[in-house]
Design brief:
By secondary structure, this protein is α/β, with parallel strands linked by helices. 37% of the residues lie in helices and 22% in strands.
């Protein structure tokens, strides 16, 4: 994507009513006005809140919003030029239950209050195989500890990935830190796979399937 395109999208994001872009300093000072008030002040309802972490272009967040209109969905990513597409689509379709938050995943506890979130989706994240700094891995124990703080007591985490490495790694971590509710290394060849896992396919997921790649999926609590 060219720099002109990026700038155009950044400017457009500023006009979108469904895009929230807090200053990093605001979050670090624990002064984010929507923390603990997402339902009351943003969505103006009491529906469950579902997050998608590292939402990329936002297509999965939008799909989830269509599939579950009775829930509020927030896509989170630091790259606003990417989720511009999802935000624009949600506005065009007048989806009042979909929003996008531009921030780093590591700052999630400054954006949401304890127990404010009902579910978390992590879809096709970078498995960070070659990096020594595994803390950036979205299912690293430190990240999962953060998610536990913002999730309700019975809050569920979903991981969907084409990476057998990340699937295996997360399975081990989740088993130690909590309870694995469901796990399968090839959900499209499993008749008992939860509908939530197979009903939505992103552009890249369809591409992986065409290449014969297995898609893994797991549900767990921390």
């Amino acid at each position: 994507m060219g720099s002109k395109n990026k700038l155009k999208r950044f400017k457009e994001n500023e006009t979108f009513s469904n895009v929230i872009q807090p200053e990093r300093s605001t979050l670090l000072n624990n002064a984010f006005s929507l923390k603990g008030k997402w339902n009351k002040e943003f969505f103006k309802n009491d529906a469950p809140i579902v997050l998608e972490l590292g939402c990329g272009k936002g297509e999965y967040t939008v799909f989830l919003g269509k599939q579950s209109p009775e829930k509020n969905h927030i896509g989170i990513d630091i790259k606003g030029a990417r989720f511009w597409r999802g935000a624009k689509t949600a506005l065009e379709n007048k989806m009042k239950n979909v929003a996008f938050l531009r921030t780093q995943i590591e700052l999630i506890t400054t954006c949401f209050a304890t127990g404010e979130v009902d579910e978390i989706w992590i879809t096709f994240p970078d498995p960070q195989i070659k990096y020594k700094r595994t803390k950036h891995r979205l299912t690293h124990p430190e990240r999962l500890a953060d998610y536990k703080k913002v999730l309700k007591k019975e809050g569920m985490i979903h991981l969907k990935t084409d990476s057998e490495f990340l699937f295996g790694y997360t399975l081990g971590v989740a088993s130690q830190m909590g309870e694995v509710l469901y796990a399968h290394h090839d959900i499209y060849n499993n008749t008992e796979a939860p509908k939530a896992a197979t009903a939505i396919q992103t552009f890249y997921e369809q591409m992986f399937l065409e290449q014969g790649k297995a898609i893994t999926y797991m549900q767990f609590r921390i």
